[in-house]
TrEMBL record:
Signal peptide extent: 1-25
Any one biological process term the GO annotation gives: cell wall organization
UniProt-recorded Gene Ontology molecular function terms: hydrolase activity
Protein name: Pectin acetylesterase
InterPro entries, alphabetized: PAE/NOTUM
Keyword set, alphabetical order: Cell wall, Cell wall biogenesis/degradation, Hydrolase, Secreted, Signal
Transmembrane annotation, as ranges: none
Enzyme Commission number: 3.1.1.-
Name of the top EC class for this enzyme: hydrolase
Length: 409
């Protein structure tokens, strides 16, 4: 008996010594079932292949029962008929191929120790199946079938489906998103406010959605031309901010957050890496700009970058800070968390959102920074020192492959 008690004491001591969020992360993996928007067809809301749009809703409870967090799913874009046709037969273009159950973690977690500020809110994941950040409105015949570019209608249909389920009586609301979904947060922030009661506290968050209008290493505007084709093909321009398009010689540029941001009147938070992996690989050094693969080793490991390549990366970081400059200096309701991790999307993964070894800027985790901003506990505009000074970045480049897969799918 004494031996058994000794073992129990040892096990208990070991468990208590472990970081509690790690234990919970193993034991309480939350999965949420899909809801198909059946009214979508009447509203003209279809995924690329004509399937109906969908979302996942996990109900709030207690003090958060009337608060709502909506999270746009990310997953790249398509900007020509072939790539969109290919995409239509994948989970990025059809709810038929999507997983019916989604894991809710990070900002979507229902565990107070993993997500202290939003765990008891109604949390919704909007599935992404249009290829234009929920902003297109067109139909194209690809020769064998129709391609539905109905992202704007999908956004509207999901909101209309959620309003009678409690969103219409929300006290607090946060519109968020990751990657292409983070860009959707910029595009739809103002309109989200219009759907909700005037006394609702509405704010928006973009995670890895601040895509720069930047020249690549060969000085070509690869991303700008990509966006122009996307906007034209999918009928996006009419859904961009009207004040922005009227003030721009090239209206399609309003798809870029750096141009749309000053027209957003709703309080906004920008969460991004200054060395965003997707932007590094597809805007700064796309395959077309590096046909001989001189950047391949650097792309996989920043420690393998030569001095010239590092300088190019530091210039990209400086350009991103400049693009956020007016927002950083003058926005009283805005927030920023710009760290120096080679990452892409940090709010949905528990290890980057809130944990004992999560990335920090000025000793503040992402979850703490977002929570402080949303609840006005303190001003949150955190900009990290340049790479390689941040020792909390344990996640260098791991999401590079995921970003590449999103582009292909």
């Amino acid at each position: 008996m004494m031996h058994v008690n000794a073992v129990l004491v040892a096990v208990t001591t070991a468990l208590l010594a472990c970081p509690p969020w790690r234990i919970y992360a193993e034991e309480r993996r939350l999965t949420v079932n899909m809801t198909i928007v059946k009214r979508g067809s009447a509203l003209g809301a279809f995924c690329l292949d004509g399937s109906l749009p969908a979302y996942h809703l996990h109900r709030g409870f207690g003090a958060g029962a009337r608060n709502w967090l909506l999270q746009f799913e990310g997953g790249g874009w398509c900007n020509d008929v072939k790539s969109c046709s290919d995409r239509a037969s994948t989970r990025r273009g059809s709810t038929r191929y999507m997983t019916k159950w989604e894991v809710f973690s990070g900002i979507l977690s229902n565990n107070a120790s993993l997500n202290p500020d939003f765990y008891n809110w109604n949390r919704v994941k909007l599935r992404y199946c249009d290829g234009a950040s929920f902003a297109g409105d067109a139909v194209v015949n690809n020769g064998t079938s129709l391609l539905y570019f109905r992202g704007q209608k999908i956004w509207e249909a999901i909101i209309l489906d959620l309003l009678p389920k409690g969103l219409g009586q929300a006290r607090k609301a946060l519109l968020s998103g990751c990657s292409a979904g983070g860009l959707a947060s910029f595009l739809h922030c103002n309109s989200f406010t219009n759907y909700l009661p005037s006394n609702t506290s509405v704010k928006c968050l973009s995670d890895a959605g601040f895509f720069l209008d930047e020249r690549d290493i060969t000085l070509n505007h690869t991303m700008r031309y990509f966006v122009k084709d996307l906007v034209t093909l999918q009928g996006v321009e009419k859904n961009l901010d009207e004040k922005c398009t009227k003030n721009s010689i090239y209206p399609e540029l309003c798809f870029f957050p750096q141009y749309a941001l000053k027209f957003i009147t709703t309080p906004f938070f920008i969460l991004n890496s200054a060395y965003d992996v997707y932007q590094f690989h597809h805007i700064l050094v796309p395959a077309s700009a590096d046909p001989h693969g001189h950047w391949n080793r650097c792309k996989l490991n920043p420690a393998a970058c030569n001095p010239e390549q590092l300088n190019t990366l530091q210039e990209y970081r400086r350009d991103m800070i400049v693009a956020m400059g007016l927002f950083y200096k003058y926005s009283r309701s805005g927030g920023i968390f710009l760290n120096s991790c080679f990452a892409h999307c940090q709010s949905e993964s528990q290890d980057t959102w809130f944990g004992d070894d999560s990335p920090r800027v000025h000793n503040k985790t992402i979850a703490e920074a977002v929570g402080d901003w949303y609840f006005s506990r303190r001003v949150t505009k955190e900009i990290d020192c340049p790479y390689p000074c941040d020792t909390t970045c344990h996640n260098l480049i791991p999401s590079a492959q995921a970003a590449l897969e999103d582009t292909k799918s």
